[in-house]
Amino acid sequence: MDAFLRTPQIETVLGASLAVILGYFFYSRISVFSSAQSERFILFIFTFSFLLAAFMFFMFRLEYTRTTLVLCYFACCIWFLTFDFLKRRLARFKLSIVPIGRVEDLEAIDTVKWQRMEKPEDFNPDATGIVVDLRADLPPEWEHFLADKALSGIQVFHVKQIKETLLGKVEIEHLSENTLGSLNPNQAYLEIKQTFDWVCALAVLIVFSPIFLLVSICIKLDSPGPVLFKQVRKGYRGSNFVVYKFRTMTDSKATDTRAVESSDSSQVSEHADAPRQSAITKNNDDRITRVGRFLRRTRIDELPQLLNILRDEMSWIGPRPEALVLSEWYERELPYYSYRHIVRPGITGWAQVTQGHVADVDEVLEKLHYDFYYIKNFSMWLDVLIVLRTLRTVLTGHGAK
Fold this sequence. Notes:
With about 400 residues, this protein is α/β, with parallel strands linked by helices. It is about 50% helix and about 10% strand.
């Protein structure tokens, strides 16, 4: 009997079952972020969990059958892709709207089926919840209606809360004291993340040092100038630091490689001064070298920032640091801009994988909404989602850049 229970097929199925449980755990946690579009990451998540299962089989020298493990992997992916598709098509989120206050633009969000009520009697009992502007002056009949529905178990959402959840950004034009308090990041996770960042950066630096050497040689052969690009940027708690990147431009004195990530594309303001213009890399910039285009497309140019992580100046994930001249400009133009420095800047971040690189003040204000969402929801699971989105962009070329 024991021999039967220890057959390679049985052990493989047990290992695959643990991989499914682990993958589903990650999937369910990431699905909390409604803007995550988690169906796009099912393959990434379960590929990781099954590779981890295969690694455990290898480490503990357990017998297993590759065919069974691969079949379980494909069956798992097909099942969850089908499940997610049906959930989004058949169980679409339904919300009723109380038509008072700042709710006029809710129906533009197409991931939800909306029902605008003209009077309390119009409420759809099949609705998942009710959205209301709790800051508006509600007539007594609407107040009684909301109280009754809340007591009956129907969820009542404030309009600002539901927008943050669905769009993945925080409105910051009218921040209150309570709002600022809610944006304080989790200090315990901040310390854990710093340690994890440091260990991973050291490991990657050691393992990929031969690749760094090869990239350095290619840069030197491709164009004259230094291998590394250096620039002063504003970082954690408003302190200045020097960021390191592989040089991707012919003019080593000009601002390089998405030198200002948030200023990478777009139109420069007509009134921008010369230093500000030099801090912006334009689309199809003719200063970019042949090797530089490849480095930028694959994000390899960012890897020297591992040195910044080891110096506790940066993190793997966080708001992108800005060139000093641009940061000072944005702080003059945008309220609360400096608050984004409450966490360490990152090589990638929520704004980067959601919006991409921008330059105009209006676009940077929109980016600030995403940065504040990251700070407010500062957690391991949001970091995992950002890593998955970054990998998807790097490997497939699709997504915000």
